[in-house]
Structures are given as C-alpha cells and as structure tokens.
Amino acid sequence: MMSVALITGGSAGLGRALTIALAERGWTVITDGRSADRLATLPRQRVVAVAGDLTDAYHQARLGEEVERLGRLDLLVHNASTLGPLPLRPLRDLPAADLAAVWQVNVGAPLALTQLLLPRLLASAAILMTISSDAAVEHYQTWGAYGATKAAADHLTLTLAAEEGLLGYAIDPGDMQTQMQADAFPGEDISDRPLPATVVPKLLRLLRDRPLSGRYRAADLEAGDLQPASAGA
C-alpha cells in the first residue's frame, strides 16, 4: 500500500532532504515552499510540490486537497519555520507584532494544518512530527522569539498526539548547514556543521521503529537511544 507524507518547507534544507529520501523509498510526498523555482528542482517522481505561503488559509486548503486526492496521510512533518526579523535581537527590542508574525509561521499555521488534516491522520494512524530546535529548551540570547515558538510547537504536537491517540515526535536535529543558520550567524563560516542529509537516517529510524511519543534529539538517535528526552502521555 502506498504511504503518503506531507512535509512543509520541502524546497531546501532538512525538508528537502527528507522529501527526497522518502520518495526514493517509495513514499508519495506532498511538500510546499514559497519558491516555485526551488520546488521545481525536486524530483518529479512521487513528489507533489505546491508553491505558497503556509500561513495562507487558501494554501492550506490546497495542501488538504492534494491529501484528499491521494486518499490517505501517514506522516505529517511540520518543518517550515522562520527565525523572524533579522538580525536577531534581544526580547527588549522585539515588537509584539514581530513576535506574532513568528508565532503564526511556527505555531499557528502548523496547528491549523494539523486540524484540517486530522481526519486523514486518524484514519491512517499517522505520525505527527515537528522539527524543533535546542532553542526550544535552552535560552540563547536574541533567539527568544524563535525559541519560544518552537517550545510551543513541541507542546502542541505532543498534546495533540496524546489527545488523538497518534504518535507524536518533536525532533531537535542539531545544527546543520542551512540557510537559517547562515541567516542567524551572518558572515560566519558554518561549513563545520553537518549537512541536513546526515539527519535523515535518524528520522527514518523513528518512522521505522515508532517509539513512544516525545521529544527526541537526533544526536541521541544516532547513539541508538530511542528513549525520548520528554515523553508524551
């Protein structure tokens, strides 16, 4: 039986690497991003790319239509996110409107999309996954808005999983060579960070072994630890 995944933010970084990996393994993957040009460079076989803004209700509906067309949904990965206004700044200098904008991308839109797709998720006993960050549990100067919204996203993911009887994972992938890291550290050499593709096998292990719901670190998964840092109910 065909397995179907929806991965937000699949045009670059970890979302792109996971999209390609699942498609190569026979999954059909729906993914999105704001850049139609970057989405067009994804493999055409088994990948359904939908350009648009995740915070837009019409775009969310389009993603829902693609899920309905395929008739099932086995995995929903909330990967798309934003740091917020650059350069990053202390919370004392962060306007409420800027925090609200970060919240809408990192928390509001993923929740709305999950609510929209919940019947299909339940029908397939699907996995709900959020790509998190160590900033969700650590307190890095100038990362307050991003960290707070990632913490909220983790909480909503694991609470939804507990409420609905789904498996839910919040994954801290660790530092990677991504545009987000480049934006966060302008002018710095980030070539020492691992490529996003190196994280994919750890995510695939979660999908294969389906451990308890909870928050996981990719570094722990690499060491063979399938006990969550925090467990869902």
What is this structure's SSE topology?
Elements: E1 4-7, H1 13-24, E2 28-33, H2 36-39, E3 47-51, H3 57-70, E4 75-78, H4 96-123, E5 127-131, H5 144-164, E6 167-172, H6 179-184, H7 200-209, E7 214-217, H8 218-222, E8 230-231
Parallel strand pairs: 1-2, 1-4, 2-3, 4-5, 5-6, 6-7
Antiparallel strand pairs: 7-8
- Largest sheet: number of strands, sense, barrel closure: 8 strands, mixed
Mean pLDDT level? 91
- Cross-sheet strand order for the largest sheet: 3-2-1-4-5-6-7-8
Helix content: 40-55%
**Radius of gyration over all CA atoms, rounded:** 17 Å
Oligomer: single chain
H/E series, N to C?
EHEHEHEHEHEHHEHE
- What's the tally of helices? 8
Give the amount of beta strand, in percent.
Answer: 15-25%
- CATH level 1 name: Alpha Beta
Indicate the low-confidence ranges by residue numbers: none
CATH fold-level label: Rossmann fold
Structurally, the number of domains stands at 1
Count of distinct strands: 8
Can you give keywords for this protein?
alpha/beta, eight-stranded mixed β-sheet, 8 helices, 43% helix, globular
Write a structural description.
This protein has 8 helices and 8 strands, in the order βαβαβαβαβαβααβαβ. The chain has 233 residues and is an alpha/beta fold. The chain has one domain (4-231): NAD(P)-binding Rossmann-like Domain (Rossmann fold, 3-Layer(aba) Sandwich), CATH 3.40.50.720. An 8-stranded mixed beta sheet has the order 3-2-1-4-5-6-7-8, sandwiched between helices. Strand 2, helix 2 and strand 3 (47-51) form a beta-alpha-beta unit. Helix 3 packs parallel to helix 4 (96-123).
